[in-house]
Prior knowledge:
- This protein has 126 residues and is of the alpha+beta class.
- The protein has helices at residues 20-29, 35-51, 73-88; strands at 2-10, 17-19, 65-69, 93-98, 104-107, 111-114, 123-124.
- Helix 1 packs across helix 2, helix 1 crosses helix 3 and helix 2 (35-51) runs antiparallel to helix 3 (73-88).
Amino acid sequence: MYLRFVTTRIHKDSHKPQGVFAASYALLDSPDLTREEWGHLRGITIWFNANLPTPPKKFDSRRAIFWFKSSAEQNIRKVRELVYVLREHGHHVEVYKCRKLGNIGWEDEFQAAAFPSKSDCRITIQ
């Protein structure tokens, strides 16, 4: 099972809903956060930078859609912290669930990067 946390904004390269990481970085760059909120959100993004692998440079991830594997429990708990902050600042966040992804271009123990296809799973669960 795979999970994807998205906002209602559309990503310019993939033409799919924007993920919560892009929305989090945009919020960090905005004047909308208190100092405490900024520190909390920045701490979460630093945790992900230290604990979530990134694809090798040769992998072109601009159009790829990243999904968490349901077994990545610690990552999912941390991403829910991001979701809470985003929702507190007016972002609508949804969670999609998919049993099987097509077009996987890269994966590790926590996530898979799949290229968009007409058969993408998009079941809103939350």
